[in-house]
Amino acid sequence: MQEGKVALHKAPFDFTKGETSALWLKVLEQLKTGDMPPPDEKNQPIESERNSVIEWIDRQLLTAGSGEAYRKKLLAPEYGNWVDHEKLFSGEIQTLPFSPSRLWRFRSEIFAYKNFGKAKSPFTYITSERGIRDYAAMSLADQSTVQMTIIVADAFLAEREKRGDFKDFANDKPIPGEDTLQGVIRREFLRVIGRYPTPDEQNKYLTFLKQSITMGGNLDGLRTTIKAMFLSAPSIYRMEFGLGEADEHGRRHLSSDELAHALAFALTDKAPDQNKFIREALQHDQLKTKQDVARLVQQLLDEQLTTGNWDRKDLSRIMRFFDEFFGFHRAGAVFKDNDRKRAERIPQWNTDMLIHDARMLIEHVLKKDQNVIAELLTTNEYFIAHPGNNEYARERYEERIAEVMGSGYVEAQIEIRRGQISRDFNFVDMPEKAENALKSARKDAEKTVAKYKTALDKGMHPFPSYPFTRKSRGIGDLLYIEPYNLPTNNRIQEQKWDWPLEQPLQMPKDQRAGLLTHPAWLAAYSLNEDNDPIHRGIWVYERLLAGVLGDVPPDVDAVVPTDPHKTLKERMQPLRAERCWKCHRKINPLGEPFEMFDDWGRYRKDHYFDEDGKIYARRDGEFDRKLKQGELSTREADASGSIDFSGDPKVDGDVKNAVEMMHRLGHSDRARQSFIRYLFRYLMGRNEMLSDSKTLIEAEQAYLKKGGSFKSLVVSLLSSDSFLYRR
Hints:
The protein is built from 30 helices and twelve strands. By secondary structure, the protein is mostly helical.
């Protein structure tokens, strides 16, 4: 069947011509996305036939020196799935894995640990905020990077001069002796680069320092030399060339020093000497073999996987992977109107706490380290308003109960307030204002006591509130929990929910299943005033099904029509038009099952309509009144959808809602393998190649062999040939 006015049987084959290459590039993209032949065409090629044509086109483009822009595009994170999934996990690829030799520009998180004071990082990401960020091939030092590095160097030098660090190099003093010059090169190189210079580097900078002093004097000569260190390759780039032994296949093993840095920056944001396990392995010459690396990575994960608070984890990059993979940490970036919050009964829209709750869940799953991928995608166990540590939660709870229910609590609160007033100039010579403040303090304290007593009398756990400490997040009240379909209250209102002291707690199994039904994720993938089924569907299609989408044509209007009388799913029907449906058939059926939630993350069964047939979104007292008086009609929320591209007939098929979809996908081979592909990209800093097939298969086998162990998965990837060898 011929579509798009292109007859392939008449297509030219001279790939050296630009128009010919452009035509076949379009064909190549359509084949990669599965849109050629059209999905409704009966005579579909088998996968091997499709792959043969793809390989032929790619080979012709390569031979003719064409398609360079296409290949460069495939280096970007969003094109990782274009490597054929079935081939990667088929076992047919026998090529030995390796990574290309490379310079990998430092990321801003690494810069933060270089001890340059409050200097702003010269390193920024150019990758999408919605995915894996740190990619070696795309992390280049452009003009702005160099300019910012110079600014950092100037600020660093100015601060050092103020402290008198360079007094031996004052211009009114003689040129320092050889030992002093040698020492300053070693000291400053360590400060700027993070390691001592090699003999060649020592000699190079010593010569440069002497020349600079001769030309500009002691102080300017030293400044110029230190600036040169800032602008050197080791200051801006991580170097991974493979300086170890070469094997018979032309692959070069990373040297011990390269391995130490590669592991440190794969797992943390700190240099190797800042992690005692990596430092000791390097010092004891135990970073040479695959077994050495596997042993060290296992030790790091056993000792440090979940240690430290979330913002400063010991293995910070491991935790950040879950942010970048799931994307829930961006929930606060979606604007929600204040008027909506009040009208729709959201007393506090606290996305920071929702994100914190999601992270506590991830930590809990990682600590168990069994069936990790499936658990993250299907569990109905959540943490809500909890520090994540049950021992600390109980300790704080018991202290707080004893404090509030003690006989002297009210008077103690008044005395605390009295002390605050005495230190506040706003109360100077205003005794009446001070007295009113003390009365208010008494009233608040008495309400707190009454709230605790009422909860205890009802057999409930009064929420104790948690301070900002290394053990907790400063959870002050239960105002933010409405997105979980739970009743809220502030610090002095009567508590309506029996807050579980021991968590995680069980959420209704028919309402929640994993992180994709968590309010943090739902909020992150929503719009200002509604759900976002398109981007939710794209997320599921690309990250759980390893699906491939083509670029959106520039003339496509992707705006969903507005109509207050229709639900969002009804308004999306025009996207089923032939031109749109080619892509939307892959994503809409995966995004629409989340219509069982509103854009705040609340589970819902029905949509409500007013007397004019318009959707009624309010959930405040006016809603209660109208509902009671029969002024609202209901229509069941349609959360049906389908899975069509899992590669498993037991997984594919219609689903009634997101919970059913996540249980099917969460236990599927495709979702597990897709997750592993994304973790591979994150740790390697590049997209997978077909030659990485052995690495990916072995990683999946290691994961399954240990009962779904995330630790085993990371150990396998970081001790793989893809990580250890360069070519």
